[in-house]
Amino acid sequence: MTHTARRIGRSLALVLPVVLVLSGTLAVTMVPWADNTPSQILTASAEDVSVPAKPRAAQDVLRDKLLGELQQGETPGDVLTHLQQEVDRRPSLAEHCMGIARALGRAAVDVYGPTKAQSFARPVCDTSYATGVASMG
């Protein structure tokens, strides 16, 4: 009896970890939210990690930062002031100022509505903020 129990124990000790690892791996790859296309099943080592990610353009970073400020409760007037300060500090952003101001105007309409958003209009980057508000209102 002891010899048989010991033999069964050894067999389980060898087989059980393999079964658990395989079943766990299959369970993770078969969850409903996983994309089971062949390109998604590749291992991480198949990716070329030696290629660094492209840095985001300064105007994109600034636009996202200012839109975030607006969504966190800053008034459009304050955000437009921050935009003007950044353009004054980094003149290379001047060519993107109008696009950023338009995006702020559109976002302000989402937060405040067209009438209230228009009340914050200022001559930052020409009248691009007001143009953004008008396009959404």
Write the layout of secondary structure elements.
Layout: H1 2-29, H2 58-71, H3 76-89, H4 94-112, H5 114-118, H6 128-136
What does it look like?
The protein has 137 residues and is mostly helical. The protein is built from six helices and no strands. It has helices at 2-29, 58-71, 76-89, 94-112, 114-118, 128-136. Helix 2 (58-71) runs antiparallel to helix 3 (76-89) and helix 2 runs parallel beside helix 4. The radius of gyration is 29 Å and the shape is elongated. The chain starts with a helix and ends with a helix.
What descriptive keywords fit this protein?
0% strand, elongated, mainly alpha, single chain
